[in-house]
Amino acid sequence: MKAEILAVGTELLLGDVVNTNAQYISKQLAQLGIDVYYQTVVGDNAQRLEKTILNAFERADLIITSGGLGPTEDDLTKETGAKYFGKNLVLDQKAMDMLESFFKRLNRKMTENNAKQAYVPEGALVMYNKNGTAPGVITEENGKILVNLPGPPRELIPMFEEYVKPYLAKKQENIFVSRVLRVAKIGESEAENMVKNIIATQTNPTIATYVKGYEVVFRITAKAKNEE
Amino acid sequence: MKAEILAVGTELLLGDVVNTNAQYISKQLAQLGIDVYYQTVVGDNAQRLEKTILNAFERADLIITSGGLGPTEDDLTKETGAKYFGKNLVLDQKAMDMLESFFKRLNRKMTENNAKQAYVPEGALVMYNKNGTAPGVITEENGKILVNLPGPPRELIPMFEEYVKPYLAKKQENIFVSRVLRVAKIGESEAENMVKNIIATQTNPTIATYVKGYEVVFRITAKAKNEE
Predict the structure, then answer these.
(1) What is the CATH number of the domain that holds A35?
(2) What is the three-state SS of chain A?
(3) Smallest CA–CA separation between A101 and chain B, in Å?
């Protein structure tokens, strides 16, 4: 399976926030043996978001988005995803109930625009949010899977663990395990020269070299059958 | 000016590294009043890198890349950039001298593949690297500017400060200053409701709301003439 990771939020394009979600999701997908070919960040802009989703689905089977599920006018991710699949947004009563009790618990007034968070693309799998207001959704049709996760990592990570990981694991024939070997005292070019033959001939496990900070690193990745 | 930020490196797509460079560069460009519409991460893959550059230059005037300037076979950023502009790579003697003395200083053997770092696109501005081996380059032609920076932040940041910032500042008519106002005790939707009229009518400064961790934030941005 080929995947792309798409973070939505102008705050990322302004440099106010580091995109740690992309790292977290990439790492998870690598373990599941799902190839990530692109990470993209796009602002809260309907037209560019739509283009990005169209473009990504031309290259990939799976898009995982983060952000843009909130209550405000510029939260557009779910709407844009629904449009891609030609789905209407319909009320999910459980999501609405959770939303209402969330505000009750915090003793906060629930403004009208909050209700939009309880609307989900028809037929989507709803991922209820225990750590915030916006549920996530998974829409799958014709071999294309769109996973919409909320932006805050404290919401995104538990939702990924609970819903997305098992959902994707079921589809994977193989899993992957990587070990990183830190190499001291030599540069990347020298290190690469040392393992050149292995890089060229070895297919399982594979080996790759790169520089991480001041270190040269060998990344060794083995593939095995997924028993799940 | 419209910009895109492009990080090159499979380690980012595997989730081994967080893309802090994108945040740093985005922040710098915001201050210069340069709009960033997309951040992209692509692996060390010639074909996808080339496609990404082509695609980005269809939408933007400026691309700033990080990574892929090293000595190994999969470091392809400079080569791909040169190809886009139809330029040959030529030896930069000063870069070669710096490279040789870098290895002498460290008492390390300079392997043959290191020499490729001293080759730059013909006519490019060479950004000498005081903190590593790979020089950066700026290529500008027909209104398209490609800035290639090395991946490690300890090399990228001083190079941006010394070369890229003044290079771009000269082209900017306006500069921008942002202040962030942290809002307590209310949710994003309620906060947005409070400033809805300002958002709709105000053009300088502008105001935007978003959630950052547990906080709601107002971002106020003012535009002024660049005196540089």
Answers:
(1) 3.40.980.10
(2) CEEEEEEECHHHHCCCCCCHHHHHHHHHHHHCCCEEEEEEEECCCHHHHHHHHHHHHHHCCEEEEECCCCCCCCCCHHHHHHHHHCCCEEECHHHHHHHHHHHHHHCCCCCHHHHHHHEEECCCEEECCCCCCCCEEEEEECCEEEEEECCCHHHHHHHHHHHHHHHHHCCCCEEEEEEEEEECCCCHHHHHHHHHHHHHHCCCCEEEEEEECCEEEEEEEEEEECCC
(3) 15
